[in-house]
Amino acid sequence: MTESLKLTAIAPFGNELALSWSDGLEQFLALEMLRRACPCAICCGEPDVMGRGDAPTRSYKPGSFELKSYDFVGGYGLSLKWADGHATGIYSYQLLRNLGA
User: Distance between CA atoms of 52 and 20, rounded to whole angstroms?
Assistant: First the structure.
């Protein structure tokens, strides 16, 4: 992904999130897949000083896969807010492109 590539449009669409990119690519990413791929420390764990760490056990509840809102983070990512209150993950544009590949 080049530095000049930008997310030009985003819209929730049923159980998917539709994304349009400045290079013309359009993606439809399943909300459940996005939530399960949350990159935050709560979901993925944090490595210790030696780089070791275990991912915590994830659990989901009603609303875990329902997107309530989103915000842009700088020029590089999205913050997704879920109906169960989870909102700590920042999905970089690179991560979003990779999830749709």
Answer: 36
* CATH of residue 34: 3.30.2020.30
CA 77/CA 90 separation, integer angstroms: 6
Q: Which domain covers residue 40, as residue numbers?
A: 7-99
Residue 69 has pLDDT above 60, yes or no: yes
Q: Which tokens hold the place of 1? A: 């992904």
Give the pLDDT confidence score for residue 88 in this predicted structure.
Answer: 92
Q: How many domains does the chain have?
A: 1
Tell me: the pLDDT tens digits for 33-53? 999 999 998 888 877 777 776
Neighbours of 35 (CB within 10 A): 20
Q: Are strands 7-13 and 16-21 parallel, antiparallel or unpaired?
A: antiparallel
Bridge partner list, 20: 9, 26
SS3 18: strand
